[in-house]
Amino acid sequence: MSHTYETRLKKEFELLQRLERHPNVKGIITLYYKDRVEGGAYKSILETPTSGLYPNEFKVTYKMPMYVAENQLKRDWQASFLFEVPEEILMDPNSKLGVEIEGNNGNFPEGSKPFNNHVSTGWVCTGTAWGVANQGFGIWYFIIAVGCLLNQEKFMMASEDADENRHLNADAFRFWKNVRKMQPNNKIDWPFKLMDDPVFGEPQKKKFSFGEKKSTQPSFSFGQVKHEPQVTNKFTFGQKK
């Protein structure tokens, strides 16, 4: 493993600890990692690795009220997702990254699948969330973006009733658009400015650079990914690659 990769993992870990402690997502996002030397069970992200190597295998648990069917809100909903960032993924700004549903053979348990047009029984389409996160932000940004997707934040969802927007569940899309009037499941002030948030002390400038960061406030579009320089970040969601 390269020294640059190991340095990057350390800084990613510190930011994930920062996210775990953020009051805006306390009880909503819980983070874990697997020790690269010892393996074994996942440990809380708040525990510093004893092996001296920072982790590249993570688990994130989301807990929030979630629509699992039309007019059916599961208030005790939670789900955990697993992902890994080996060097070839973390250090490549054009890499792809998805999440695996923990347990139940990689599927949501019966009655727990989010009623969301970007979700199927065994897959969450994260679109270009990682592509944006890996352009100067980090793993923490990807985790927040997936949380926004699950919470059906308007800026993560296309509003036009078209085939590509209905995506994996047309009924869920129309319920969100026509009945719920494109409102999120829960009102959450997601900490997109995590690296500059004064809650944790003095505001900090960007700690590392692995791509050009234009803005900490995301905007989302749907359709073809644009490759020209952008003032704000673009997220797209569509067919699985």
Give a written overview of the molecule.
- The protein has helices at residues 3-21, 87-90, 129-133, 139-150, 163-166, 170-179; strands at residues 29-35, 39-44, 57-63, 66-69, 72-74, 78-84, 100-101, 119-120, 123-124.
- The two termini are 28 Å apart.
- The chain has a single domain (3-200), classed as Ubiquitin Conjugating Enzyme (Roll).
- The strands form three sheets. The protein has a five-stranded antiparallel β-sheet with strand order 2-1-3-6-7, covered by helices on one side.
- By secondary structure, the protein is of the alpha+beta class.
Give the gist of this structure.
The protein has 241 residues and is of the alpha+beta class.
Category from helices, strands and their pairing? alpha+beta
Examine the secondary-structure arrangement and name the CATH architecture: Roll
Number of strands: 9
Average of per-residue pLDDT values: 83
Helix content range? 10-25%
Rg to the nearest angstrom? 18 Å
Q: What are the low-pLDDT stretches, counting only 5+ consecutive residues below 50? A: 199-234, 236-241
- Major β-sheet strand ordering: 2-1-3-6-7
Q: Give the N-terminus to C-terminus distance in angstroms.
A: 28 Å
Q: Quick one: overall form? A: globular
The helix/strand order is: HEEEEEEHEEEHHHH
Biggest beta sheet summary: 5 strands, antiparallel
Strand coverage percent: 15-25%
Counting structural domains, the number is 1
Topology-level CATH name: Ubiquitin Conjugating Enzyme
